[in-house]
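Bug #77: duplicate submission created two jobs. Keeping one. Sequence:
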Amino acid sequence: MSDAAYLFASVAVMAGVTYLIRMLPLAAFRKKIQNKFVLDFLYYVPYAVLSAMTIPAVFYSSNSLLSAAAGFLVAAVLAFFERGLLTVAVCACAGVFLLELII
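Kept job's structure:
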């Protein structure tokens, strides 16, 4: 298989998977969902998926686990006190940077 054909096949498979993921819920659920448990479950799915993708990346993004944990702690504390996203991100990065300088 040539490189161009492989690339075209890969893009076609990815497009098909993306389409199916978006189309299947619309085809499967024709009525409005009334079940409170299912509604609550679906409400928290995006947050759970985002956390599952982000948290491991946070702890493996720096040279040491200690500095990554410090940055996470800074971000968690600032987010708890409802600071803005930019403030949280910049302060967490600064915390990791400063601890990396000390270590």
